[in-house]
Amino acid sequence: MVPMIARVEPLTTARALRGPFDYRLREEQHDAGVGALLRIPFAGRTALGVIVGLSDSSEIVPERLAEPDAVLPGGIPADLVELATWMAAEYCSTPARALGLMLAPGAAQGTRSREVLVAELAHDPSDGADGAERLTDRQRAILERLRREGPIAASAIGTDALRRLERRGLVTLERRAQRRRPGQATVGSASAVAPPLTDDQQAVLGEVLGAVARPSRLDGAGPGGILLHGVTGSGKTEVYLRAVEATLAAGRSAIVLVPEIGLTPQALGRFEARFGDVVAVLHSALGQGERYDEWVRLRSGEARVCVGPRSAVFAPLADIGLIVVDEEHDASYKHEGDPRYDARTVALRRAQQHGAALLCGSATPRPESVASQRRLRLPRRVDGRPLPPVEVLDMRGQHHPLHPRTRMALADVRRGGRKAIVLLNRRGWSNFLSCRACGHAWMCPNCEVALVLHQAGFVACHHCGHREPLPERCRSCGSAALARHGAGTQRVEHDLRAALGDGGFPVFRLDADIAGGKDRAGLTLAQFEAADAGVLVGTQMVAKGHDFPDVTLGVVLDADQTLRFPDFRAEERTFALITQLAGRAGRGDAGGTVLVQTLAPEARSIEHAARHDADAFLSEELGRRQALGYPPFGSLIRIVCSAEDAGEAASLAKELHDRISVPGAAVLGPAPLFRLRGRSRSQLVIKATDRPGAIAAVGAAVEGLAAGASRRRVSISVDVDPQ
Ligand code: ADP
Ligand code: ZN
Ligand code: ZN
Question: How many angstroms is it from 571 CA to the middle of ligand 3?
Fold first, then answer.
């Protein structure tokens, strides 16, 4: 018979080793299809590989082809192989790296289902067929229990006794997978009952359902999907829930992407409450076994809704009818490892593959989405309450980190027994330390950045994690007079506690430094929710989509901080942060106020956010981007070469520069970046209107230099659509 040839992509991270390579499947391996995970002999060792194609011929004679050692569990459906191939090209990466993101969680490390022996009644002895009279009382009791309760884990009864019943044909014993169940979300009480929709929701849902129902092979609603632009508290989640419900009713499946589950447990709770076990969750705070089991439930079709962060866009679901991207402006949708994919772009591609509708929602949509998607509006809050008034407080000439107006408002909140949220997008105690005598500043030895002072008595680098004890004297002149500049969340927490914290008015802090990581974040939110009154201080984490009705005051400290970054998204970020934080306030009967402290009160993004004027902001921002050729009017690709040797990094960047030519595109650089983790870096930025052309040119140039780069110990990282 004809040998079956599998085209296999070995899962190596090396850029220079690119498959696929042909392997000959043994007869018992013939049902391994595209997407199967294999253990293969590769380059003199054993590696994992994924089948990316099948054939009955190879350029190599069959006898000389190696055979896979084994077919492993955890392989992916064929549509994900196609998606990986597309991603590898779109993000100038390799198929192996893209495939690596899509396997069952832990499959490469050997995670498997947990199996237990399950006993089930085989035959009802009351039929009188099989000599029921010869049973002991204990055996009768066992059979009675199995009849009453259905299948039970054998260990709960006793394996020996069950084996004896099995031999008589009364009981069957079988190994079955046992689900490791993720813990339940703890913030917010979600109801299983759907409320009647508001007129606005009803109108929007009608359009969305039209897109879900349209049986086209294109995506659901025009070239870029649907953008649900709804103010904070307008009930976007209810629209998602109804759209998912309709998708399930049509027999199809759905993916719901959320920014970070640890920070948005409420959203997950709403989906679980509404749909129960048909929902699977994939997120990194779950144990590997739990994640694996959730993945298997999705793959088998037992679960048909996947809720999770960006990687959930790879959920192994068949026949997807809807992909929701909640809070589509959130930066966490961009993956920071190679391939540097953007889950929103991948979601659109996957929706197109499946003929699914793409529904993105936000109160602060990105200008890119406004330009490319069909926009539907929810202009009012569900409860009809106005958005809270925003006061901009000019901090020029102020010496205390809190404006007098802010201090007064916080004291009012405390007096009224209500809640406030204070946002400062900077963690730690002080920004940086310097010597008052000679001006020496404390810098990271690995990175060219200042060390941040932390409350616990150390200084730390927020880029590489380097830490050292708080110095007592200046390293260069010996002076003991050290200046601490700027305030971070720890300092604000401390100051607020000193000012307000007595008398049962708790102050909570939420940032990346709180011990216990992601689980602790959910716990802190739950504590703040459960408290009768109090303040929550934190980084942008406090501005995510939380829905706490008793928050009456929102405060943004140092609102122009994000504007000081040299980044074309600075305005967009600032506008979103203020608007999102404002959205947390005034959701209850007591109304609310928002205070924005800034050194730049006349900045466009701050003025527009203060007036809740997203349209004015978006149209000005789109105008500015068009003039400068920034997205969505052009595409950016960033290439960073890094090496211990500064000269090598820069010269490789120069060689890349010379190889990249795209008509109408500008190749900017090489420009040196600050040293990071002990490596010098050099950057190129390509600004192009021909996006596919630019991606292809960059991909070819990088591939052409990959072997030389690895010889010279330079690593090349490509970021298409950098954040
Ligand atoms: P958004 O995501 O747009 O900020 P949410 O989805 O958090 O808004 O909704 C705000 C609040 O309104 C939630 O508590 C939600 O349960 C509630 N809600 C949503 N739709 C309705 C409705 N049709 N009737 C009553 N309450 C609703
Ligand atoms: Zn000094
Ligand atoms: Zn560092």
Answer: 27
